[in-house]
Amino acid sequence: MYPNNTRTVGVHEYMYWYLVTAPVMVSHRGIALADNNLLRRDQGSQHSPVTSRISNLSSRGGGGMELPGLVFIGDRELLSPCEPCDVAKISSPPNENLQEQLRMLKACQKAYGGIGIAACQVGWRTRIFCMGIDVDDEAARARYPDAKPFPHQFWVNPSITPHMEQGTSWFWEGCLSVPGMRGWVERPNAVHMQGWNENGEPIEAELDGLPARVAQHEYDHLDGVLFPDRALAGTLLPVRAFEDDRQDKWPENWPTPGARKTKPGGFSEVK
């Protein structure tokens, strides 16, 4: 599915980064880390799997909805495949609890400034993700200033087929579950998607550009893969490396030609 010449960073490498530096990086956000470096769980919660992982990062979405905290790199649950969703429960008859979880997932994406989010990133271990950028989504645009808006969409139990004949491109990927970092990732430019929407209806689509990129990133989450697994070796950088024109000071062709001129949210097809 992915280019053979893309070197990857192994799980042990980014786990080391998390165990050594993450407590320092995220402690100012008020996140409590347990002795085993997993996010603290609400042991007494009687809520659904989604709301049982409320952390100190929990927030409130539109309408006062309480939102679960994000699951971060270092949590073993991000490294294993998610379970398929029972599509029949979405709409026949409508499952209000499931619909509430879908609304919650979309609210989490917006509240945390994502351009996409997988259910497992908020502790809901099912094969669902949503993505999209609204014109007025200031939080998402702040993280990816060069990203163009595209319609919001849900994908339930998706399958994905890359169109390798349409080439590949590079992108400085980030992730809500890997805070403060970006990596230089090569992926196919276009994909064919099949699955179900939030109403339990079968859907398929041809995606290219940013929607294709985000879909592949979120689909990886469903298989327990994080973007550091896809990043070119040695290119996991702090977000500050992209601020205040710092990119202009990078070597011309580092880490590959075109990388220096590609801002977060932009693409490079230079090989």
TrEMBL record:
Known EC number: 3.5.1.88
Keywords annotated in UniProt: Hydrolase, Metal-binding, Protein biosynthesis
Biological process according to GO: translation
SUPFAM superfamilies xref list: Peptide deformylase
GO molecular function list: metal ion binding; peptide deformylase activity
Swiss-Prot/TrEMBL catalytic activity: N-terminal N-formyl-L-methionyl-[peptide] + H2O = N-terminal L-methionyl-[peptide] + formate
Family designation: Belongs to the polypeptide deformylase family.
Enzyme class: hydrolase
Domain of life where this protein originates: Eukaryota
A Pfam family that the UniProt record links to this protein: Pep_deformylase
Keyword Metal-binding: yes
Region (Disordered): 245-271
Record flagged with keyword Oxidoreductase: no
Protein name: Peptide deformylase
Species, as recorded: Seminavis robusta
Function as written in the Swiss-Prot or TrEMBL entry: Removes the formyl group from the N-terminal Met of newly synthesized proteins.
Gene3D superfamilies in alphabetical order: Peptide deformylase (3.90.45.10)
